[in-house]
Amino acid sequence: MPIPSRILASGNSPLATTSIAGDGATGLVATGTTQTDALQLSAVFNAITTSSASTGVKLPPCEAGAVVYIYNLSGQTLQIYTKETSGVTLNAAVPGSTGVALGNTKTGICYGTSATTWAITAALSST
Prior knowledge:
This protein is mainly β. The protein has one domain (24-122): Jelly Rolls (Sandwich). The protein contains two helices and eleven strands; from the N terminus they run H-H-E-E-E-E-E-E-E-E-E-E-E. It has helices spanning 4-9, 14-21, and strands spanning 24-29, 39-40, 45-50, 56-58, 67-72, 78-81, 89-90, 94-95, 100-102, 107-112, 117-122. It has a seven-stranded mixed sheet, with no helix packed on it. It is globular and about 45 Å long.
């Protein structure tokens, strides 16, 4: 796994470092109750700290090799949706508009296995 400080120390620019190691967003608030109005994620590493019941987040556009981490510390179960409204599935069977649940204190590891499929695994509880 690339470590940003080491990438920077080797002479790479901050933008190149972000492209290689990924970026992070903390203090995010899940919104909406459907794919249409869920919070759009833009970072690789995401910490959701606040949400109301039945709210969710949307992954970036699906592409093979993409990876997005979602750490849910919101106190609620979140729904993870795809950005695309059709043609993209989660875990090869669930339509992106349906979403996949991510429990409180769980980390979702989402990776694009193709241009049309996100695979999502949930790590064990942090507590």
